[in-house]
Amino acid sequence: MIPDIELASKTEINNFQIKKLKDLLSYLNTNSTFYKRLFKTNKIDIDTISSLGDLVTIPTTSKDDLQKYNDDFICVPKNKIVDYVTTSGTLGEPVIFALTDKDLDRLAYNEAISFACSSVTSDDVIQLMTTIDRRFMAGLAYFLGARKLGAGIIRVGNGIPELQWDSILKFKPTYIIAVPSFLLKLIEYAQQHNIDINASGIKGAICIGESLREQDFSLNTLSKKIKENWDIELFSTYASTEMNTAFNECKAQQGGHHHPELIITEILDDNNQPVAEGEAGELTITTLGVEGMPLLRFKTGDIVKVHSKECSCGRNTNRLGPVIGRKKQMIKYKGTTIYPPAMHNVLNDFSQVETYIIELSHNAIGTDEILIKIASKEPTEKLLKNIKDHFRAKLRVRPNIEFCDKKEIQKLQFPKMSRKPMMVIDLRK
């Protein structure tokens, strides 16, 4: 189930996207209060946009714009809205997204081709280990995508290893959708209850929310821990509510594949200019085919690299490498630039660390400080020193680390109304 456009030449993909972009600009100029105002204020004649390179003449859109002018982005009357979702609010107040019936069809198509990219077929059964309620787009997308693909789906929800294993043993799913660190909890539960995980019939896991790979696509510490115990394929994904689109790995596992019929991507520097090929920059997206709330040149806040070489799976689309970090969560600590994913990778090296949370703040002179609170069944000074030494060896810095009660950390990770754990609390102004 590979769309023809994803097998086309780079030139054909480019020409296809230019046509889709022109359709979008016309739609926004007719239906979007926000973008009509943006075009008028900046004296932009949309008829002069004739290439993807011309996008740089249009100002970017940010999460701040969405928060400040949320309703102005809605392009349809209220009676055409059939579903409301909200962003997670990780970096600010949640934003409302309004979806039409056509948008739900697009969401199903996106997830169906993304599942297919990760080797899921209509013969498979998928166990969903994330919520489908709480205004969460992803859970709904997974359900709709599996239905469109013709695969079975078991909606268990997040957490509760006992219920997850009861469902696995009872319904025999072949794939699971989960946050990678939760797979470690499933492994632990299985070991404690004499469940042979490698006889469970699970072929692979579609992993969300956490990185599986280093920048060269080798397994990171977290995925190595999973694979040491569970012989399954791990497929990384990247998506967000704002994009209404997913980037899934194929069997080659060399980055998340771009769906050119659904989204235009740019990788921009701090001056909103395209970076040189192979360089990291902020992923900026333009959604295609969205009816309710399309976005034009929206800055995701995620720092990534693009890989453009043709993939062995046959697709000729660009691929996104693992997220290096969130731009707003970049830390300048004692002369070293760090992103939280690098710290996650260091902490995942220690099996004695049950859970943790990273707090970012400013000190008295306004520079960045890092405090890592960890819970452990073995809270010894030796462990603390080993972790600090490991940080210095891997990242060249030793952040402040302290032991903390597990329940206290879990309260910080799951604030009221949260749908997924918060691993970073940013207290910087």
Question: Overview of this structure, please?
Answer:
The chain is an alpha/beta fold and 429 residues long. The protein contains eleven helices and 21 strands. The strands form six sheets. Strands 4-3-5-6-7-8 form a six-stranded mixed β-sheet, sandwiched between helices. The radius of gyration is 22 Å and the shape is globular. The termini are far apart. The model has no long low-confidence stretch (mean pLDDT 92).
Could you tell me the number of beta strands? 21
Average pLDDT reading:
92
Total count of helical runs of at least 4 residues: 11
Helix amount: 25-40%
Side by side, the strands of the main sheet go 4-3-5-6-7-8
Using the CA coordinates, give the radius of gyration.
Answer: 22 Å
Secondary structural class: alpha/beta
Based on Cα principal axes, name the global outline: globular
Strand content: 15-25%
Main beta sheet strand tally, sense and closure: 6 strands, mixed
Low-confidence stretches: none
User: Gap between N and C termini, in Å?
Assistant: 47 Å
Q: Could you write a compact summary of the structure shown?
A:
The protein is an alpha/beta fold.
Features:
429 residues, 31% helix, alpha/beta, 11 helices, single chain, four-stranded antiparallel beta sheet
